[in-house]
Amino acid sequence: MSFTKINISIPLELEKKLTELIEKGQKSAFIANCVKERLEILEKENLENQLREGYLIQSKEALKIAKDFDLIDLEGLEND
To answer: How far is CA 36 from the centre of its chain?
Structure first.
């Protein structure tokens, strides 16, 4: 895996907690893991939204088709 350096700004309180809770030399790995997990969540949410929109469009089209066939389905069912 390739790595790149970036400069970020975080609130001082977060930096203090990182220093307190994360072993020296492990901050970058910890932050990278947090970013990765959050990105996975965002990607999943994005996919769910796309699927929801697709299902909504598909259901509207299916209703339209069903309405178009309502009259055809009743043809030939005249009462004798």
So the answer is: 14
